[in-house]
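Lecture 7 notes: from sequence to structure.
We start with the chain below.
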Amino acid sequence: MEAGILRDQFGDLRTGLFISMPIGTVLSALILVVQMLSGGGLLVVSWFAAVLMINGIRIGLALAQSDIPDTALKPVGARLSLYGMLALASGIAWSFLALLSDGYSTPQAPLYLIVLAGLSAGSVTYGASYAPASINFMTLPLLVAAGCVLAKGNIENYVLAFTVLLFFGGMIRSSLLGQARFRETSRLKYEAKEFAAEMERNSRRDPLTNLLNRSGLEHAICQLGLADGPFVAMLIDLDGFKSVNDTYGHNVGDDLLVRVARRIEKRAPPEATIARIGGDEFVLLFAASRSLHSTDELASSIISAIADPDYPALNSVRVGASIGIYVSEKPQLTEMLLRADFALYAAKRSGRNEYCLFDAELDHGLERKHCIERDLRGAIEGGTICSWFQPIVRLDTHATVGFEALLRWRHPIHGAIPPPEIVTAARETGLLSLLTERVFLNCCSMIEELMRNGRQDVRVAMNLSPRELEAGNVDDMILETLKTKNVPTAMLEIEITEEAPVDRDRVDEKLERLADAGISIVLDDFGTGFSTLVSLKDRRIRKIKIDKDFVRDLAKSVEDQALVKAVIDLGRTLGIEVMAEGVETDADRRILQSLDCMIAQGFFFSAALPIRDALAFDAGHPDSSAAAKTIFDPAEVSLRRPQTGSAA
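Predicted structure tokens for the same chain:
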């Protein structure tokens, strides 16, 4: 900082010289002219030449280009000292005015004193940054002038001498004060710069682990040279970390993150870049050539280190790690994180404590994902994404008592897109509410067709996620549209899965509105996920659907039969209708009927059908049922809806 302040003083002094030196030269020339007109000779010419030479040296020094480093303290101080010495030399030269004016006794003496006072004031003004320069210049001339005037005697000269000395004292004080203010201003400037630089450094650091944050990681990547490639990016995500925060609190969770950071650092290759870019996400970036171990070995080592149960504060929770790996010749943050993240979720699908390298297969999957997300809005608005309807059948009468709306989309490039992919893409692109509205309008169209056919006893069901209820105003959209279209609320069912976490009060309030309007609320996928027996106490639940995992191959599992029977009996006791989904064989159908489950859906009866085929479906007619099973349904090869439940 001191070197910087001295450089500022040096620079300000140089700038001032280009103003003060021309003025000084003009004034010295004026004195030369006056002296020559008064009979001056060689002495005044010699004086003028000395003043010009000293001024020339000072100007030459100012014009010289400075190549002094910013942090060099001594060279700058030496330059300033030289300026001070030259100012002293100039002051000595101007002291000779006393000789030229016979001790300031000639008629021109008042002019010379005025010029001297002006030059002294100018030296303070233009040399305020460095007091020695102005003090060295004016001290000797003013003291000599005061002495000469004082030596003349009489009261007027005493007063004049006192005035010169008073002026001299004021100039000294002004010079010192100016330097102090300049240095303080310069110091504050450098402190501000240093603080800004520190803030910039801190803005690139994670305050908890002291690793780089995302901004710091991006800056670090910009410093990498392509010649050091290829580069390996490992995206490390902790498994089970949420349970640590929920069970032990955030203090323990923070301590765990710090320990994980240190363990990653310990196993990182030399000169690796490590960052924490999310709550429990870390990035390890390094040049492949600098790692002593293969990528697989390093990933396994990091996973083992993180999964080591040596966390004294944790007793019941085990933390693991999943790693997505991407290798690239060019270190580009967005591309590397995007592909490493895709590989990470592929690793998570394999289970805990796994790693996955982004390869050609995943690259194809990522391209497919981007393509689906890119085309989604157009498909929703253009009707390419539509709803097919799977019949819901009463087992004792074979009557069709309802339909469930299921998403269908045949992409021009990737073919049939499973509903989970559609819903996930809609959620990630912010189009879920638009997709839900489209499904709901399709359900309204189906209800209107049923009404035209006199089938007001048939219900149409759509899936809705509690998270969607929590985040949006889907309840307003449903109720207002039903009223506008004059569609009976009793013909609409909303199938909802139990999910966590959600704002329970907000979701309950919206479900209350829908139920009070006459819409039937169905608890979907009962027996799996977050659905519990407590849910059956909710008076708004009018129907539960036994999950297909309990129904598939029901005839072969005595345990599943016992569970299904228990749910059916419990539903009858509570006055809740029970139906089964995923019926695929006649044996399963007969077992369900023997267990007193009267309503079911599944491929045994029909796949999901386009609206016209669904309206024509008749479960009691052998030809119709067989035809329905042969209709191509591209989504039957995959899950019918995402795990989180939604508009599928």
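Points to note: The radius of gyration is 44 Å. Confidence is low (pLDDT under 50) at residues 636-648.
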